[in-house]
Design brief:
about 230 residues; 7 helices; single chain; about 80% helix
């Protein structure tokens, strides 16, 4: 009887981009506006710094992810092209190589050969890509998906501390922002852990502690030097 095992690893690519973008958006923008506020910056200065941080950060995340993931895809496509050429020019050597891979995994030599032959007849490139290169030809890296996911998640994350410090009553902006950003980081850490099937508590602690350190240090710099950082 078959059953659904519920593995989460297929979510790794977009989940990484989304979590990284949102985390950076929350931490960097909260740190920025808290640093400006601690340096006695007025509402206008805080708002300007926050908006600039949101726009610049989102564009930077998008560009960085696009370049990084494009490089990964270039490598994958180059490896596939090389493998395709080897399958065309030296098919017997490639068949022996695939047989050896299955034999190394524990299959008897005869069975390893049979499996290699069957997979080669079905789709030789896909078989070698998965077993030899650890690449799924149908699921290569997606630069545009990573770029848009990072930019959007960064903007959403950055909007929270920016709104918190602008809309907070009286002089409570820094405290409200700190609390809101910390809570958001905790939710983000827990959500990403659940979505990825990982333990929740370590993820929450890791994200919250890192964010608090960044925000605390930036506020300290703003207070000590009176500069917008």
């Amino acid at each position: 009887m078959s059953h659904a095992e519920g593995h989460k690893s297929h979510r790794g690519g977009w989940l990484r981009a989304a979590v990284l973008g949102a985390n950076d958006g929350i931490v960097s923008t909260a740190s920025l506006v808290l640093g400006v506020a601690a340096a006695d910056g007025g509402t206008s200065a805080v708002l300007t710094a926050g908006v600039a941080g949101l726009v610049g950060g989102a564009l930077s995340m998008a560009a960085g992810e696009f370049v990084s993931v494009s490089s990964q895809r270039d490598v994958e496509e180059a490896d596939l092209a090389r493998e395709r050429e080897e399958l065309r020019t030296i098919p017997q050597i490639e068949l022996d190589e695939l047989t050896g891979i299955f034999a190394d995994k524990g299959l008897p030599e005869d069975l390893a050969r049979q499996v290699a032959v069957v997979l080669t007849e079905k789709d030789a490139l896909a078989a070698h890509a998965r077993e030899e290169l650890n690449i799924d030809p149908d699921d290569l890296a997606r630069p545009w998906q990573a770029a848009w996911t990072s930019a959007l998640s960064f903007a959403v994350g950055a909007a929270l501390p920016l709104l918190a410090i602008v809309l907070a009553p009286g002089g409570s902006g820094p405290l409200v922002t700190l609390v809101a950003a910390t809570a958001a980081l905790g939710v983000l850490g827990g959500w990403s852990a659940r979505l990825g099937g990982a333990p929740v508590r370590p993820a929450v602690v890791r994200v919250v502690v890192g964010g608090l350190l960044a925000m605390g240090l930036t506020m300290g710099i703003g207070t000590l030097f009176g500069v917008a950082v």
